[in-house]
Amino acid sequence: MTETLHIVGGGMAGSEAAWQAARAGLRVVIHEMRPKIGTFAHHTGHLAEMVCSNSFRSDDDEQNAVGLLHWEMRRAGGLIMEMADRHRLPAGGALAVDRDAFAVAVTEKLKSHANIDVQGTEIDHIPREGHWIIATGPLTSGALAQAIRAETGADQLAFFDAIAPIVHADTIDLSAAWRQSRYDKGETEDELTAYINCPMDRDTYEAFIDALLAAEKTEFHEGETAQYFDGCLPIEVMAERGRETLRHGPMKPVGLTNPHAPDVKPWAVVQLRRDNALGTLYNIVGFQTKMKYGAQAAVFRMIPGLQNAGFARLGGIHRNTFINSPTLLDHELRLKSRPNLRFAGQITGVEGYVESAAMGLLAGRFALAEIAGRAVPPVPPTTAMGALVSHITGGADAKTFQPMNVNFGLFPPVDLKGGRRNRPARYKAYTDRAKADWAAWLETTAAPLPA
């Protein structure tokens, strides 16, 4: 093949799109502006850098839509899942990774591929010719974002995404905290003890909420509006919704027993999850925040076990950008006004590492088939991939479009009654149907590229 696929952005989506196309024989150029031009959230020039969390969430492919998406990506030979599995950390039923080792591995795999050229260039305009995928993620550069707005005629949509802090493990007081995965999930000792738990009694929790609400917060720039994505709310925003919100959310005390006081049920529990293979870093689960740095250290050290915590990284907040995909993209993720251009990843309005990579996987395969002159059938909406792409390219209401994680509510219903009691059987029916339909779809798109 003499054609070249250009991909703008080397995050989860861009990396996966490049891999899917290149491994089938297509020449690919990845245009990644980092590290020459940095962003607020990134700290390296590695491809597929994880900036918010080190978790790909649930790996249960029978009862969870995210786990099903993992399964589908693995079945399609996905690079992101291969490297995640290779650099997996104990996390109970979740798939968490050593974020630095993961990004290095993805980068090395792509840069060493004979069909891939990684260029440290910023694309600041809409390309008029050639085959392109824009996978610039939520931190699209200002120049390119302006070019996209000019091309689409649509206002930029934005929400604010917050980053959780990371703590040095040797500064956590294990005489107050303990290691245990919620509901004792996991088969190995590492998995059973993948989380560090910091308990609070009622008075400590109430004092923590008071301090959280009173802490100095990062101000927004004039003209900005805080349209938070509900799956990644800053903890202080959750607290503002009600004093009990956190203890029914990231601080819920269920499924845990404190070995220091087994007969005392904690009022709330703060969990920390391992962030690297060495076990020297832990991130505070669900503790995204927009508190100022000085306030963060003071408030978080009120947590039992973290009174002497040393922070490898404090939390932060940044603006995320996404397009109104239901009005702008067709079912193959092409921009309707300029079909040589596809979008993939979070900029399309999916939320999460896995969802972003999944849209990259599809964009890479769609582009590959188009260049090869092959028609590709629509992705079955009964699959996790199909449910997501159907949602963002027409299933969602364009007037109220907001970022979305994969969930069974996006799938066509299964004919199974029984209500909440029958939920496990219903979820299993969703995943069984999806696996069969995804395997069949992959078979229809498996023809090799012509020479």
Automatic annotation (TrEMBL):
E.C. numbers: 2.1.1.74
Catalytic activity: uridine(54) in tRNA + (6R)-5,10-methylene-5,6,7,8-tetrahydrofolate + NADH + H(+) = 5-methyluridine(54) in tRNA + (6S)-5,6,7,8-tetrahydrofolate + NAD(+); uridine(54) in tRNA + (6R)-5,10-methylene-5,6,7,8-tetrahydrofolate + NADPH + H(+) = 5-methyluridine(54) in tRNA + (6S)-5,6,7,8-tetrahydrofolate + NADP(+)
GO CC annotation terms, alphabetical: cytosol
Key words of the record: Cytoplasm, FAD, Flavoprotein, Methyltransferase, NAD, NADP, Transferase, tRNA processing
Record-given protein name: Methylenetetrahydrofolate--tRNA-(uracil-5-)-methyltransferase TrmFO
Family: Belongs to the MnmG family. TrmFO subfamily.
UniProt binding sites for FAD: G9, G10, G11, M12, A13, G14
InterPro entries according to UniProt: FAD/NAD-bd_sf, MnmG-rel, MnmG-rel_CS, MnmG_N, TrmFO
Gene name per UniProt: trmFO
Top-level EC class: transferase
Cofactor(s) annotated in UniProt: FAD
Domain MnmG N-terminal: 5-374
Organism of provenance: Palleronia sediminis
Gene Ontology molecular function: flavin adenine dinucleotide binding; tRNA (uracil(54)-C5)-methyltransferase activity, 5,10-methylenetetrahydrofolate-dependent
Role this protein plays: Catalyzes the folate-dependent formation of 5-methyl-uridine at position 54 (M-5-U54) in all tRNAs. NAD-binding protein involved in the addition of a carboxymethylaminomethyl (cmnm) group at the wobble position (U34) of certain tRNAs, forming tRNA-cmnm(5)s(2)U34.
GO annotation terms (biological process): tRNA methylation; tRNA wobble uridine modification
Superkingdom of the source species: Bacteria
Flavoprotein is among the record's keywords: yes
Matches recorded under PROSITE patterns: GIDA_2
